[in-house]
Amino acid sequence: MATRPAGGLEGKAAIVSGGGTGIGWACAAALVADGAAVTICGRTEATLQDGVARLEKVADLGGQASYAVADVTDEASVVAAVAAAATLTGDLDIVVANAGGGGGLGPIHTQDLAEFTRVLHLNVLGTMLLAKHSLPLLVKSGGSFTAISSIAGHQTHRWFGAYPVAKAGVEELVRNAADEYGPAGVRVNAVRPGFTATELMALVPRDSPVFASYLENTPLDGVGEPEDVGHLVRFLAGDEARWITGQIIDVDGGHSLRRGPDYSLFAGVSDDEPRFGLSGPAT
């Protein structure tokens, strides 16, 4: 019987923020399956416990899974989670900054300041804090940092409020970190998922014009799976990607070639009312 080849990540420790579900869990699963010792972190312990139980079922090449309860917008919490991840092997080799999310839909002039700020903090500050406290360890190990962005980070997504702004900020943080830490042997990249079949995106009705707008703007004519993102993140984390840094890579079925989705229905906005009830210039 032929022996299965090694996964290539044996002996490496990783942390994945927002790793209990969706894209984060798929990234953790791809790393665990190839032998890494992975710590997932998030705010809800029950979700993390379930995530670890499912990860243990795919850890067939010697990988292992653990969790740390953490809020990525709280610096002390991030420090503790990074330290916990590094205890598994004594080093930290792989970081996946996945925790993030959007907020209220609507035109910019309707955006609530507190909600706009919350989304910026969750995405940009959360990624920055994870980078701040993991990069010194990645310098020691010559490791890899990958952030999960979105096609919204460079393609207009009308009515999405702070989310596109936040993801664009994440991408510029990645580029600068890649430039700053490249001489130390650390690679920093980002991945831009398109529509991906996660628990959150399941809220978009499949018979709605919103869902139809995704399909008509996706050349491969379908919806991505979390595993599609996980496979790319696994590649970027390994030695196979040793000469790749500072890159923002789309994994979206080609959606970025066209235009963003139409969420007018959810935002309560009609293209028949381009002024949104506001008065135009006097004539």
List keywords for this structure.
alpha/beta, 8 helices, 7 strands, 13% strand, 283 residues
Strand order of the largest sheet: 3-2-1-4-5-6-7
Q: What is the number of beta strands?
A: 7
**So what's the oligomer here?**
single chain
Largest sheet: 7 strands, parallel
Kindly report how far apart the N and C termini lie: 83 Å
Secondary structure tally, helices: 8
Residue share in helix: 25-40%
Protein structure class: alpha/beta
Which residue ranges are poorly predicted, with pLDDT under 50 across at least 5 consecutive positions? none
**Average residue pLDDT:** 93
Mass-distribution shape:
globular
Rg from alpha-carbon coordinates: 20 Å
> What string gives the helices and strands in order?
EHEHEHEHEHEHHEH
Sheet-strand content, in percent, reads 5-15%
Short note summarizing the structure:
With 283 residues, the protein is an alpha/beta fold. It has eight helices and seven strands; from the N terminus they run βαβαβαβαβαβααβα. Helix 1 crosses helix 7.
Describe the structure.
- This protein is α/β, with parallel strands linked by helices and 283 residues long.
- The protein is built from eight helices and seven strands.
- Strands 3-2-1-4-5-6-7 form a seven-stranded parallel sheet, sandwiched between helices.
- Strand 1 (13-17), helix 1 and strand 2 form a beta-alpha-beta unit.
- Helix 1 (22-33) crosses helix 7 (226-237), helix 3 (75-86) packs parallel to helix 4 and helix 4 runs parallel beside helix 5 (162-181).
- The chain is globular and about 65 Å long.
- The termini are far apart.
- 48% of the residues are buried.
